[in-house]
Structures are given as structure tokens and as C-alpha cells.
What does this fold into?
Amino acid sequence: MEANSHRYCVIMCGGVGSRFWPYSRADKPKQFIDFLGTGRSLLQMCFDRIKPIVPKENVIVVTNALYEPIVREQLPELDKEHILLEPCRRNTAPCIAWAAHHIFARDPEASMIVTPSDHLITNEAEFAATVQRGFEFVEANDALLTLGIHPTRPETGYGYIQIGKEIEPGILKVKTFTEKPDLELAKVFVESGEFFWNSGIFLWTAESIIKALHNYAPDLECEFKRGEQAFGTPVEMEFINEHFPACPSISIDFAIMEKAANVFVECVNFGWSDLGTWSVLYDNSPKNKDANVTRNCNLLAYDSTGNIFALLDKKLVVASGLKDYIVADSGDVLMICPKSEEQRIKQIVNDVQAKFDDKFI
Amino acid sequence: MEANSHRYCVIMCGGVGSRFWPYSRADKPKQFIDFLGTGRSLLQMCFDRIKPIVPKENVIVVTNALYEPIVREQLPELDKEHILLEPCRRNTAPCIAWAAHHIFARDPEASMIVTPSDHLITNEAEFAATVQRGFEFVEANDALLTLGIHPTRPETGYGYIQIGKEIEPGILKVKTFTEKPDLELAKVFVESGEFFWNSGIFLWTAESIIKALHNYAPDLECEFKRGEQAFGTPVEMEFINEHFPACPSISIDFAIMEKAANVFVECVNFGWSDLGTWSVLYDNSPKNKDANVTRNCNLLAYDSTGNIFALLDKKLVVASGLKDYIVADSGDVLMICPKSEEQRIKQIVNDVQAKFDDKFI
It folds into this structure.
């Protein structure tokens, strides 16, 4: 048996990516798109990143039932049983609880990394070393470990983690989790050296997270507890389809991380972005000589700078006199919006839904 | 025999419409597009307008050989023999010379209206009355008649006709043809009441125009003269394919109208536009409440006014913070350009051709 055969990875892959509408659509959200023009979708990049770290047969993808075909198409190496299909959307805590029980039933000694599928990580070697270190820590301690990213700018779009005492080199007690700060506070956070970005990437043993769920989210845990006999058996999906919808819709941060006493942070620096907004995508992307960013298109720019053009099929875009816009085309929808107005996209999606139902969502 | 059975119409339909690139493409130029969102292309609208005026079997469409399939598709009522296929582009004079000889061989008593296929005429009843009057004039006189439009603004995009003595009510001698004026001069023209827009719509008998070609464009006429025995016979196309390419590329205005002594203008007022530029199209189109113009798309506009959106397939466009732009999408090309910069389109088309050959032209 390999040394890492008790190590698992849970890739959370059920999001709708509505902040990137219309480039990200309900039927093909952000994580399934070749968002960086690399030829691989964000999910595929996530899978590629994990493969050297945990055995392929220990990778679990949790997604919405809608996305089963696209996950199977994009990850043909993944066995069908390794795709957990949520019957409905219930945020991260129920997703993680299910995955933990599923894995625990298979391997009570399991440790696991839980990761979103739609983030960018630029230094994969550093990532692998970080995760290796994290596994060792959670396998030796009853600990809930989150990866905290060294902040490089006073970003207001992220949550922050305040660090406490260092337990082992690079691994510290968490003092507090904070919500997204305003710019002034974000500046203070970054200058203090005490705050790290909350990456939403976690490590723990299946046993530790189930225990934490039992202690801090008993309502949620009891839904899964009753299925103990079902996990890992042919009736697991039947049980999930019946009980998953009854779970509260709650994030793992809110349900567990902000409450538990055994929460630790590994402070890391592997070139991370949640790619959460167009502006972040712009900032994280290579620019051409006009400071424009292009995705899946050919650009001819005249007096046009600071734009991001995200299209399909290598479409030709000719832009004249356009500065700092998002131009996103998904085939049947074209959106042109200043980068500075991207908070309007949520309203736009609502308006489109009100006017056209789900046709363009 | 009907009263109008000697009356013919020549629809010139071979243009490439490059000023409307990329909405107008080499394989489907402006005249073949439902440019006004009426459900009929400009060519079809032209044909519909002519049908009450001349017998259907007397309508001749002259186009480039490339466009035979699209003309036949759009005008299924037209017999195949009524489509004259130019083997190459040689501007309007050779086109008209061929059509005149073709018609003369069939009917030496023919009179004809020659019209572009890509103009807008809003008052069709007035148009019909005007053309009726024009036919009567050219049938009674050896005259080359052009339709002059009452100018409604100091347009710098049109040629102007200076009027002379009135010969009959509404029909005047032409004093001069002028090139496109600058704005100051255009204002003077309009205020004088002596200048009319040159519509590029002509009436004459086949005999009169052939005589004028003989007198004022002998180089051109001699190319056709040698084919006298071929016109109206099965070898006409063979003759054209051999001799048409040898014709000089020259406009009928330059070859004949600016030189001939028997040129007259009928001053008319039927709501005309050559739809020659995006701005003209914008001005001639109904606006929605945000002063935006849409073609074949659904628009959601936020803080966006004065734009023209020309797309395909009822695509949804979401525009935020966009003022006075042209947004044109032809499937594989998207162009975003301020209306005020549309003279740049010619350069853009050149640049696209230099970079991608004909792929996107």
C-alpha cells in the first residue's frame, strides 16, 4: 500500500459562477471553462494539480447532478463512483459532510484535502509541498487546517484569517476569521502582517471533520448520521436524494471553522487567486501590449486598453475607443460592461431572468 | 400587351458593402441582409417596391457571379435568365451598359429604371408615382433622367446635383454634378434650394443610354458593341465572361452623367437614404426609449444611449456604460467602435485582411 493511500481529495464543483455571466452560464459554469486559455478547464487544472498528491482513485468530485455529463467528459480518468451528485445546492457544509461520510465509510483512517475547483494556483510545486505538510499535520493531530495565503494587496473581495500562536513551523492557531473588509481595514490587515487570505482550501481527517460537525453543526450532522449504514453501499444515492435536500444551506466557514477550537492555518505562498471577479481575472492574466486581456479570441485593438475580452471559438474582436471594459460573449449573449461596474452583473442576471426566464442564464 | 410592357427595371446588386463590415460580409453583403429588421432584405424590399411598377418578367438583377445562389434564394419569383452574373467587379457603367444591351436586344423599344439594391425608400406610393412620371418623360424624350432628392440636412456623405431650368413640372435640366462637399459647402447647397442629393437612380430608354455610351464612353461601349449578335442568345454569357473583364472600372456618373448634354433631374421627395454609413442607418432607424437602435437582437441597456447594435439570431446584448457606439456581430466577428470613428472601418477591414487574409472579410 502506498504511503499516501489514506489520502483523499474532495473537489467541490457545483457552483454556478454567476459573477462571470454570461461567459459562465448555468449549463457550463466557470469551473468547466478554459478560463485561462490554457486548453484545460479550471476543473481539469485542479485535477491535474491534485494527481501527483493523492492517488487518482482517491479523488472525489462533488457536483450538482446537472453537471454529471460535463464532469465525466472533462475528467474521463475519474471512475463514475467518484462523482458525488448533489440533488440540490446546499452550500459547502453539506457538500463536505457528505464527502466526509462517504470517505469515512470507505476508509476510517482517511485524511482529506477539500478544494474548490475554480481557483487559480500558479506554483504547483509549492502547492504540492504545502499540501504534503498539511496532511502530515492533520494526520498527527485532531486538527482542522485551512490554507491561508500571504496577502499581496489590500484585497476587499476576500475573507481574512487572523493568526495566533505558531504551533509548528508555518502552522499557526487561528485567532479569528473575518468577513470581507473595506479598503481601509484591508490596508490595516495587510500592514499588520497578522492577517492572511482565506483560501477555502482545507485539510483534516474524515474523523476530525465528522467530530467537528457533530459538535458544531449537529442539525446538519444528524441528517448524515442516520445514513451511516448507507454510505459506501448501493443505497447511498437513494439516501442522499431523500435527505440532502433537508440539509441547511450553510458554508463550512460559518458552520464549523468560525466556531471550532481546533482550527489551524498553514500560511502559504503558492500564487493563488479565487478568480472571483472579472477584475481579479484581469489582474491575474497576461496582458498584450495594449494592456488588454483576451480569452479564446483574436483581438484587433485601436485606441483600446485595459479591457478583458472573453469570447468563444477564437472569434475576431475589433475594438476601437474602448477602455477598461469587460466584453463577454457566450454565443447567444454578449455583455459589454465597464470593469468598474462589474458589481452590476448580479442585477443584470436578475433582470435577464425576470425578462427571459432561464433562456439566457 | 400591357401599357408598361416595354418598361424594365435593372437592380444593381453586386456591391460588397464594406462600410458595414463585419455586419455586411463579402459572402453576404448589405443588400442581402434584413438590414432594417423588417423580415425582408434590402434587395427583397427593392424588388417589392418595383413589382407594382414594371412587369415581374421585366426585372433584371445584375450581380456578381458569387451571389447567384443568394439572389435566387431571396427572389424565387425571378427567372434564372433574369439574373445577369458579372464575372468580376467593374463599377456601375459596365454593369449598366451590359443590362442596356441585354434589354435592347430583347426589346428595342425598352425604357428602364436603374436602381441600387441597397437603399431605403420610405414612401413607396410616392416612389411609384415618381417613377411613372419619369418613364413618361424618358419615353417622350431622348433624355437621361436622374432622381434628385430634396435635401433635408447638410449631408456630407452624398453627391449633389445643381438644378437648371425647369423643362416640365418637376423635371429640370441638370447644371452640374458635384462630389461630396464639406459641411460648410453642404450648408450653402441646402440653403440655396438649388442643390439636390444624387440618388443614383436613373431612368432612360435602352436606346438613349446606348447612344450616350457610344458618345461619351466609346472605350466601354465598343466592348459591348462587338457582342451585338450575342445579346439575348445562348452565347451571351460566354461573350460577357470573355469581354466584361476588359471593361474599365468606372461609375455611370463619371462616364456619362457628368458629360452628357441631355441629362435631366426629377426632383423627388419619397423618403430616401442610401444607408451608406452606420450613422445614416442609425439616423434612419426607429430608436428605443434609450435612443438605441437594435437589429436582430434583444437589448438590455444600462446607462447606454445612442448606440446601434446589429447582431444575428436575436442574440441578447447587455450594454452598460456605452454611449454612441456601433456594436456589430456577424457570428465569427465582433466589432465595437464609436459611431464618430466609423471612417476607421475601412482601415480596420484592410488591417483584418492583412492579418487574416480573407478569413473574416
Residues 124-140 of chain B form the longest helix (17 residues). Residues 103 and 146 of chain B are 19 Å apart (CA to CA). The radius of gyration of chain B is 21 Å. The mean pLDDT of chain B is 93.
